[in-house]
Amino acid sequence: MSIPHTKRVCQLIKLKPEYETQYKEVHSAVWPGVLAALETHNVADYSIHYFPPLHLLIATFKYTGTGYDKDMKAIGEDPITQEWWKVTDMMQESFNDGATGSGKDIPWWTEVEEVFRMEGVLHR
What we know:
The protein is of the alpha+beta class. The protein is built from four helices and five strands. It has a single domain (7-111), classed as Alpha-Beta Plaits, CATH 3.30.70.100.
């Protein structure tokens, strides 16, 4: 089933190697309030992948709303999400100079440019 969306987002951040096991453990049971905030603010099809050789976390999601900046700000103001970030931010290292954590003026995760997309299924 296809999810309608207005924007696809891909973000990167470095996972501190000593937190690999712990990071995977906390993400095996993401807090329901965090998931609810994402859903309420039009985030769908969210996933995080890990590339161990570079300690790289790669997050992708679809944004299905019409006010991306407003929704991202609202997620950042959610108290449960803020508590979640206190747990996860300490395990990460931002690529953005001056970033001090999620929900601040300088983005914690680095958003990357989409250079190719193929949608749908080819019919033969």
